[in-house]
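Comment thread on ticket #2218

A.B. wrote:
> Attaching the input chain for the structure job we discussed in standup.
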Amino acid sequence: MSSLPLDLLRSRGGFSRDTRFSPMLARASTAAAPDPVVEAYERGFAEGSAHAMEAALLAEREREAQRGAIELAFAQFDEHSEAELRERLRQTVLALCEATIMPVAIDPEGLAARVEKATGMLQRAHDERRVLLNPEDLALVRDRLPEGLAVEAEPTVERGGLRIETADGGIEDGPAQWRRILAEAFREC
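C.D. wrote:
> Ran it. Output below, let me know if you need it in another format.
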């Protein structure tokens, strides 16, 4: 057979590696130098993540505080607050109505028609009627009024208003009465 001493080879445990011939298996004696670009990227990524997380937490705290404030406001909204809100809305609607009332009240044709209608309500022949208008309104409608109607300028009558006086009483119409009617209607709502 062979002249190799197999027993000798077996006793040493077999083959062993020689690092001279297998550099891949050799242990690196020194650690590789860190790459500054990779380190900068990782540091920037970590800092950016931390800032984003902090900003998200801050935004969530602010939203939670706002939610809490709204919930508290609704919890404190009692009958008194509701009455205040209702009154403010009523005042707002009245102000809006006021803005539409005045142009209608001082319209010459509309004012003349209201004078005729009001005087027509007092049809008795023996009634002596005095129609009182604001001096500025009288200048606007004098030519549009019926013949023979006693019309006088009265500075105490509001612009757009009219007052008819008779021996038995009188009739008054104008923006002040319209406002009062609107205010009463809104109080009932």
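A.B. wrote:
> Thanks. Noting for the ticket: The CA atoms of residues 108 and 140 lie 6 Å apart.
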